[in-house]
Specification:
By secondary structure, this protein is mainly alpha-helical. Helix content is 55%, strand content 4%. It has 16 helices and 4 strands. The strands form 2 sheets. A two-stranded antiparallel ribbon has the order 1-2. Strands 3-4 form a two-stranded antiparallel sheet. It is flat and about 145 Å long. The N and C termini lie far apart (113 Å).
Length: 447
């Protein structure tokens, strides 16, 4: 049968010579089934070989990716190391501990870049980038002052010295809350002068240095900050501190004259009493309230200042000693002078009016505050009377409404009886203490 069919197709089939047409026609035909078991085995062998090739190709791709990733990571690390080495090579720095001794001064307000330029000029560090990189790496704060250094030092070692305030010389620092005695002792130490030179200026009344409202007393009039004391006289050093204080008070808008001295006095007590800047205003208000009530201030800090000691060292006899003019436990009013040099945060600025600050000190004298308190009490009393009057009028209005309802409904309106019968309404009237007839209850409108 198979031979006859083959003969039939071979005799009647027409073949086309166009190769492209024939190939497209063959491609459109479905795959031919195997003619024999040999063809089937051959086809299975081809499929198995094709599967093996696919697996091998996939395995090769995976191996290539893994190997490429491994060498790629190594290459990236190598490039980073080369870049790091290159940057280190670009930053020139000395490696030794230094050669010749030298003195280097950092002025107030100078930044790391400016200090680095001066260090390179003095041949202390080799490059500006070495110093600035060392400052950034250490996160250091550079303090003004004169430092003992050496030429050809490593930048990191220089940073350690310049960031250590204890090694700074030639600059005196005034800290907030310090007394004049502490300030001149530190200034004498940093300038190399004797304390007696500063004390002579203090005892001389500060002519040509202090403003008139200071009354010849330096306490409270030294502005906190760092000051260069090299090659300067004691008078010039103190004058610079006082000038900085007056300038700061003008900037803050603090009034001139006796009011400025009064504000400095209260601010100095607040600075000495309060541990938290947020409490400065609270301490100031306590002082003002006690002054208004003609009470002693009762501040141990003022008593300690009068005895030139600290509050923790005061004795009971000292606390009760009224001969000390600064003893505010016994004597009323403010002490004769400020008791410290308050910081800027304890002094009110022109625009501050919060409870934390003492803006009230700027425009309230004790008499003005008493008048204000009386005025507030008067306004509170008037408001209270007005509210009481409104409440009485409201009660009268409610009473009139209830009276009108009673005239219409023969009883107050304790409940809603809408839709109830006359018997129900009669029971309600009886419960309200009213005796009515059935006809009255029937004629009464439903609530």
């Amino acid at each position: 049968m198979t031979d006859n069919l083959n003969d039939f197709f071979s005799d009647n089939a027409q073949w086309v010579d166009d190769t492209s047409a024939g190939s497209s026609f063959d491609a459109a035909l479905p795959p031919q089934p195997p003619k024999s078991r040999r063809d089937m085995r051959k086809r299975r062998e081809q499929q198995r070989r094709r599967r093996y090739v696919t697996i091998i190709a996939a395995a090769v791709v995976v191996i290539l990716v893994v190997v490429g990733g491994f060498f790629g990571v190594r290459m990236v690390k190598h490039l980073r190391q080369m870049n790091a080495n290159g940057s280190q090579i670009q930053i020139e720095d000395y490696t030794g501990s230094g050669d010749k001794d030298t003195t280097f001064t950092v002025e107030t307000g100078q930044g790391a870049a400016e200090i680095a330029r001066n260090l390179v000029k003095a041949d202390i560090v080799k490059s500006e980038s070495a110093f600035t990189s060392a400052v950034a790496a250490a996160g250091a704060t550079l303090y003004p002052g004169s430092y003992a250094l050496k030429t050809h030092m490593k930048a990191a070692d220089v940073v350690k010295i310049l960031s250590d305030q204890s090694k700074a010389g030639g600059f005196a620092e005034v800290k907030a809350g310090e007394r004049v005695s502490d300030v001149i002792a530190n200034a004498a130490k940093m300038s190399g002068k004797d304390v007696s030179e500063f004390q002579a200026v203090i005892d001389g009344g500060g002519a040509g240095i202090l403003p008139d409202e200071a009354g010849g007393k330096f306490e409270g009039w030294l502005e906190p900050g760092s000051y260069s004391v090299q090659d300067k006289s004691a008078k010039d050093i103190l004058k610079e501190m006082v000038t900085a204080r007056v300038s700061k008070l003008d900037t803050l808008g603090v009034p001139d004259g006796s009011e400025r001295e009064r504000i400095m006095n209260i601010a100095s007590i607040a600075e000495s009493e309060a541990c938290n800047p947020d409490d400065y205003g609270k301490v100031a208000r306590v002082i003002l309230n006690r002054i208004d009530q003609d009470m002693p201030l009762g501040m141990d800090s003022t008593v300690a200042y009068g005895f030139n000691t600290t509050g923790s060292k005061l004795t009971d006899e000292q606390l009760e000693d009224g001969s000390n003019p600064y003893n505010t436990r016994v004597n009323k009013g403010l002490p004769p002078t400020p008791i410290s040099n308050p910081g800027d945060s304890a002094i009110p600025s022109r625009d501050e009016s919060s409870g934390r600050q003492m803006a009230v000190l700027r425009h309230h004298q004790p008499q003005d505050r008493r008048d204000e308190v009386r005025g507030n009490r008067r306004r509170i009393l008037e408001d209270s009377r007005r509210i009481q009057k409104q409440q009485r009028e409201c009660q009268l209005t409610v009473s009139r409404i209830n009276t009108t309802r009673a005239s219409r409904c023969l009883s107050p309106r304790p409940r809603q009886w809408s839709g109830r019968t006359a018997s129900y309404r009669r029971i309600a009237y009886a419960s309200a203490g009213r005796t009515v007839s059935k006809s009255q209850a029937t004629a009464a409108p439903a609530h």
